[in-house]
Amino acid sequence: MLELLDRITIDPAVRSGKPVIRNTRITVSDILGYLAGGMSETEILADFPDLAHEDILATLAFAAQREQRLFSVL
Question: Would the pTM count as exceeding 0.85?
Fold first, then answer.
């Protein structure tokens, strides 16, 4: 899972510091929103040719890790 998370970067100069897929300006939130809105992975990858299957997995892993951290604090 750590290798997947290397695909996510946070840089204050890119998209106001939101987590993005490395070497793109596509945020984790964008991808999660597309998936939640009903887009399939195939549709997302077709619309964003710079993305790979592993980027979708990295997005989900990042969101899962954030969720775990949130509830470990509570």
Answer: yes
